Amino acid sequence: MKLAVYGKGGSGKTTLSASLLQFLSYFCNFRVLGIDGDHNLHLANELGATETDMQRGEQGTARDIGNDLEWLRAYFAGNNPRITADLPMIKTTPPGEGSRVLKLSEPAEWRQRYVTVIDGVELIRVGDFTSEDYRKKCYHSKTGAIEIFLKHVWEDSNEAIIVDMSAGKDVFASPLPTLFDGNIYVVKPTRKSLANAVDFLSHAKNFGVSMLVVATDISNCQEVAAIESQLERPVDGIIPHDPFFMQRDSLLLSRPPHVREASFAVLDALYNLTDLLRQLPLHDWDKILTRMLYHHEETAASWAGDKFNEQIQPGFNPFKHVKFEVSV
């Protein structure tokens, strides 16, 4: 499954992303890949990364996909003849014949270039602004790398890719949310967090994006009721207020505790949430492809230019040659 986690800064978005990655890996025996899609770059720290982890031995520090777009595009384009100097890959370009469409688990050059392993969890980062970006680029120029990656790397039924998204509703300026099996909004029982949730969920509804809502830092059922009343919908998951989460952010500890050290209350909440997530529908490959083509045609019509429609190969299904545990 592919999951995106959204929320106001301070809502517990990154903490939940890290907790889910560790929980699925340790307790559910999933292969997991986390993508830090926030320019604050906190996910590695939340996963307990050490300097040794980040250095990766002889490999050296991993590159950030958002700052390595030229290589990323060329790599996944492969020898697709519809991607040329005149028609370069853009973030909505669908895979075509000759493109690299890969399974998450298979050995591949992108893994050596981008992946850092932290206590069994694989991590790649979009990256921060560089000196060349200042006054020239917005962060969307980097998050397009997530779209390219997610179109070309696919997971089996016992694998998960979880993206810790940047805060804010500007994500709806792209079709990125439609690439996920589940979109999760994290809300705390505070006025500011709830106001942001109401606004974000309204935009999601307008854009046809289904959302799951997870309430965090919950001390009692009255807080849950207040959130549900304001959102006019039930929450899908509840993460309790617990000393475990305070320890994860403590300056007194050299690294945050792993989720295996969490209280029974936290583990029970994560079990309930992962049970819900595992009930998400399996990939509908025809629907995924149809949506990709629609968004690329929409992009061609709105700003890229009609010539980019030539990147679509009529009748070609890029997923048929990749053998997944779920049927294509």
TrEMBL record:
Keywords: ATP-binding, Nucleotide-binding. It comes from the Bacteria. Gene3D superfamilies: P-loop containing nucleotide triphosphate hydrolases (3.40.50.300). Coiled coil: none annotated. One of its GO terms (biological process) is negative regulation of cell division. Signal peptide: none annotated. InterPro entries: CobQ/CobB/MinD/ParA_Nub-bd_dom, P-loop_NTPase, ParA/MinD_ATPase. It holds the Pfam family CbiA. Residues 4-172 form the CobQ/CobB/MinD/ParA nucleotide binding domain. This is ATP-binding protein. It comes from Dulcicalothrix desertica PCC 7102.
